[in-house]
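Supplementary Text 2. Reproducibility record for the structural model of the 301-residue chain.

All settings were left at their defaults, and a single model was retained for analysis rather than an ensemble. We include the record here because the model underlies the residue-level annotations in Supplementary Table 4.
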Amino acid sequence: MQLGLIGLGKMGGNMAERLRLGGHQVVGFDFNAEAVAKLAAEGNIGVNSLEELAKELQGRKAIWIMVPQGAPVDETIAKLEPLLNPGDILIDGGNSYYKDTVRRHKEVTAKGFQFVDVGTSGGIWGLKEGYSMMVGGDKEAVDYLRPILETLAPAADKGWGHVGPGGSGHFVKMVHNGIEYGMMQAYAEGFTVLERKEEFHLNLPQVAEIWRYGSVVRSWLLDLTADALAGNPTLDGLDAYVVDSGEGRWTAFEAIDLNVSAPVITESVIRRIRSREQNNFTDRMLAIMRKEFGGHAVKYS
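Retained model, structure tokens:
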């Protein structure tokens, strides 16, 4: 089966290679000429424009979009629509906000095309491990894409599923990432407590390895954490600056809208924001208030 793929970054490139190994042909486009050349060198077809991509695809077109969420997705769809035939399928495999996806599904299907949203997890490990995919959209379009989804997944019957109508795939992926934020925060805080207990001289890589087997807190995330600690046990050279790509805060906002208490996810987002503040004003305000009401000592740099 052929698949058009727009966006050949690390994840998109790995997806293309997994599909090639599974017997599918990818026609790929990216503004990075080196990425296009690499795709072609690996046995797929690299093109230099969306027009070329559309011409290379035979029969019913299925085009997977892997570009940053927001305006880039809308701009890519607008450029593709004149190149499509009725029934062709656009797939958004990025981390789009689900409300944008609901809108896009309505707009695209009203023009006679199909729109499928695939919340995709697996990152740089997807080529080896397969991708977890949460799929939203009309059943007919998803069924048509089944050979592609089964190849990208960890197994044909594992790690992916059609979860509901347009927008539901990105909604489930949004909550998935919110949970991920909370798990990461819990691991980070726990290892910090271990590190701070200086009198025990704990070996954090050793502890991580112990927890990986038989423990109730074992996970793939812990496996990756153990690998990172083994390479840099004291995290030398790292800045305490953590970015967020949006899904955690979207999950927190949605929880509030739905009257769901989600303090762990919400606090994990706030902690990421806090990590970007150097000598932050909030903590200085706390220090000066303690001095004023209790005469407590403060430090000046």
